[in-house]
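Intended use. Records like the one below are meant for learning the mapping from a protein sequence to its folded structure. Do not use them to infer anything beyond what is encoded.
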Amino acid sequence: MSYINTIGRRKSAVARIYLSEGKGQITINDRAFDNYFPTLQLQHIVKQPLDMLNLSDKYDIKVNLDGGGYKGQSEALRLAIARAMVIINPEVKSVLKTQGLLTRDPREVERKKPGRPKARKRFQFSKR
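Structure written out for the chain above:
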């Protein structure tokens, strides 16, 4: 088995990962993991499935990230990694599912409607 590829989505972010056995290196868009996600909170979100299963130094992950902001991209990447872990070992599915790491968050930004300033907001009503 050379590598496993999965996909994760969140808001408008899409993460495509290629997971192979290695030393725990994560490369995102040809950049280092610490360089791409500078804050510890975003790094923790991405590594959550790996830390939960104690596999953070066992697999190398190459990532193509597109769209969205840093938060959406980190959550899309977390979903893709969790899905890859289930493909490798189906027994960990229950552990990841109870933590909510296999659930795709479907919330997207609602489109702006015509005749309104935003999606649901209305202009101020004037009686006179």
